[in-house]
């Protein structure tokens, strides 16, 4: 009998899951929040700056593995054979030649530019626009495999922005490393960044790596700005799928975690890509990992001539399942939209001196809003909102966009506004589905994973009505970590491929939501209003910038 550990580094915390490779039994799990992040250190939401200190990752990683192993027991501890890792992305960090994040060095310990730039950091909007403009003028299309539009959330835009803002970081950085690549490098005792195994998932979807370009397009990137001319592009040449071993647990980490040095650490990947595997993805199904944002994943058989899908976050051979094409889309905000509204209407609670009462009320807000929103009928005259509170990821990335509430009158109470926000996030999901369909990718059903999928039947049922498709919800509470555990098992040789790992370790589904045809017809009309409102808003913002 053998067990693997899946590590899922999310936006706020890291989760660990210990899984029996023979039957998928989950025998230990834990969650640890990032201490400095929870205090909003190094972040400035008004400037769209979201940075995370690597020490948060180290502390949380150690805590969750110890706690989950304590739950599982010593017998399981002795039979751990592998660790798989997923993280958010694109979440890159400048490192020195040893692969040490600059923020771990005394000179940069409090410098946000030397830390990991979280996926939702949008400080590089200008740089992303420049990349898009340069590509439009280029005789060769270097963005065709990432949907045709480069995003401020991604690798090169963030690097260029940082180099323009901070010469000291530029001079000290030997390379930049994605979070999902750094954790396996760390656990295996890496001391030379040139030996780091970079994931095809992160490199292909965010760093413009493709076999056609023999790696990343160095000439194109060098010509963007002199600051990128001396970048170590060769370090991004060799990339690996997540079923490959990054190495074995180092002596230091084996002692720290009380595990064997024979434990294999798999190459990392992004959370939603591993979550799709944990949710037993199959061709024709859209896997939606729904949390603060969404990441939407599809897989398709490889073809001689690749069908290029416009406006998504990229399509990469092997980024989800090795040997299949992985396609990624997503929404920049989903649960974050609800959290924003909760914080908005919670403002008066700050006037209370009773902390216990304040917490008690805050914890009930979303549940009570949901209960009241569910009672409201769906009509063609309902107010309509846009879900672009954090810009738009797909279709057609545009981080300049803003959220909108329309159709408000004196009868628009909190439950009605909340209902419109839930519907807006579902309309955003429908826009992604319709883009796939328009580009020739069939979507016959949806697999929903993540916190919102498990916690809110109201949101999932609304989503089913809006998409007019069935939605299967994965049984595991930690599907991203489960997927990471599956990749760990495959990298350790327990299974010959990821498909076999999914069959043996998959937890199945615990609920399926089905659309009501009559409600779906009403949502068809409201969705058209959403599109009209979106077109008007996007045109208005564009005109303001001229």
Task: Walk me through the topology.
Blueprint: E1 3-9, E2 13-20, E3 26-33, H1 35-38, E4 51-52, H2 54-72, H3 74-77, E5 80-87, E6 92-95, E7 116-117, H4 125-137, H5 155-165, H6 167-172, E8 175-178, H7 179-187, E9 198-199, H8 200-206, H9 218-222, E10 239-240, E11 245-248, H10 251-257, E12 264-266, E13 269-270, H11 271-278, E14 285-290, E15 294-301, E16 315-317, E17 324-331, H12 335-345, H13 355-375, E18 384-386, E19 404-406, H14 414-438, E20 445-449, H15 451-455, H16 457-467, E21 471-474, H17 479-491, H18 498-505, E22 509-513, H19 517-545
Parallel strand pairs: 1-5, 5-12, 5-13, 9-10, 14-20, 20-21
Antiparallel strand pairs: 1-2, 2-3, 4-7, 6-8, 11-12, 14-15, 15-17, 16-17, 18-19, 21-22
Helix pairs in contact: 4-5, 11-17, 12-14, 13-14, 14-16, 16-19, 17-18
What structural keywords apply?
Nucleotidyltransferase, domain 5, globular, 19 helices, 18% strand, 7-stranded mixed beta sheet, 2 domains, 546 residues, alpha/beta
At the first level of CATH, what is the class of the largest domain?
Answer: Alpha Beta
Number of strands: 22
Low-confidence stretches: none
Sheet having the most strands: 7 strands, mixed
The chain-level mean pLDDT equals 95
Task: Bin the strand percentage.
Answer: 15-25%
Q: Level of helix content? A: 25-40%
Q: Ends: how far apart?
A: 64 Å
User: How many domains make up the coordinates?
Assistant: 2
Tell me the CATH superfamily of the largest domain: ATPase, nucleotide binding domain
């Amino acid at each position: 009998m053998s067990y693997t550990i899946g590590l899922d580094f999310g936006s706020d915390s890291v989760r660990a899951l210990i899984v029996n490779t023979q039957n998928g039994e989950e025998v230990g799990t834990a969650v640890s929040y990032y201490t400095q992040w929870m205090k909003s250190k190094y972040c400035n939401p008004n400037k769209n700056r979201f940075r995370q200190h690597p020490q948060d990752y180290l502390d949380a990683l150690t805590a969750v593995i110890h706690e989950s192993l304590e739950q599982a027991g010593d017998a399981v501890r002795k039979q751990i054979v592998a660790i798989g890792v997923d993280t958010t992305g694109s979440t890159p960090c400048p490192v020195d030649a040893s692969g040490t994040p600059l923020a771990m060095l005394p000179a940069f310990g409090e410098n946000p530019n030397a830390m990991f730039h979280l996926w939702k950091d949008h400080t590089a909007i200008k740089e992303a626009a420049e990349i898009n403009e340069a590509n439009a003028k280029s005789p060769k299309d270097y963005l065709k495999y990432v949907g045709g539009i480069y995003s401020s959330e991604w690798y090169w835009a963030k690097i260029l922005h940082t180099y323009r803002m901070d010469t000291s970081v530029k001079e000290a950085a030997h390379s930049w490393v994605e979070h999902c690549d750094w954790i396996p490098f760390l656990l295996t005792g890496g001391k030379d960044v040139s030996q780091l195994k970079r994931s095809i998932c992160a490199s292909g979807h965010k760093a413009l790596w493709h076999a056609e370009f023999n790696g990343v397009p160095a000439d194109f990137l060098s010509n963007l700005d002199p600051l990128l001319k001396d970048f170590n592009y060769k370090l991004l040449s060799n990339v690996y799928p997540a079923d490959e071993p990054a190495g074995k647990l180092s002596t230091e980490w084996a002692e720290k975690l009380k595990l064997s040095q024979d434990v294999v650490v798999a190459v990392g990947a992004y959370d939603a890509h591993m979550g799709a595997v944990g949710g037993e993805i199959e061709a024709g199904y859209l896997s939606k990992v729904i949390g603060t944002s969404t990441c939407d994943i599809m897989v398709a058989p490889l073809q001689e001539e690749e069908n290029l899908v416009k406006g998504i976050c990229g399509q990469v051979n092997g980024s989800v399942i090795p040997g299949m094409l992985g396609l990624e889309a997503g929404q920049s905000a989903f649960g974050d939209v609800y959290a924003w509204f909760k914080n908005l209407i919670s403002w008066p609670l700050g006037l209370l001196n009773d902390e216990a009462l304040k917490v008690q009320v805050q914890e009930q807000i979303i549940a009570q809003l949901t209960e009241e929103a569910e009672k409201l009928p769906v009509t063609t005259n309902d107010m309509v909102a846009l879900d672009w509170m954090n810009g738009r990821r797909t279709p057609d990335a545009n981080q300049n966009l803003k959220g909108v509430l329309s159709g408000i009158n004196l009868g628009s109470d909190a439950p009605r506004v909340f209902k419109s926000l839930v519907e807006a996030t579902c309309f955003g999901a429908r826009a992604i589905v319709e883009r796939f369909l328009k580009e020739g990718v069939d979507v016959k059903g949806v697999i929903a994973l993540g916190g919102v999928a498990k916690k809110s039947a109201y949101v999932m049922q609304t989503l089913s009505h809006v998409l007019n498709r069935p939605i299967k919800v994965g049984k595991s509470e930690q599907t991203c970590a489960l997927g990471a555990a599956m990749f760990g098992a495959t990298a350790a040789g327990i299974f010959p491929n990821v498909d076999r790992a999914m069959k043996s370790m998959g937890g199945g589904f615990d609920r399926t939501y089905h659309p009501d045809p009559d409600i779906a017809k009403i949502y068809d009309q409201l969705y058209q209003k959403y599109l009209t409102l979106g077109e008007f808003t996007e045109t208005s913002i564009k005109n303001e910038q001229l």
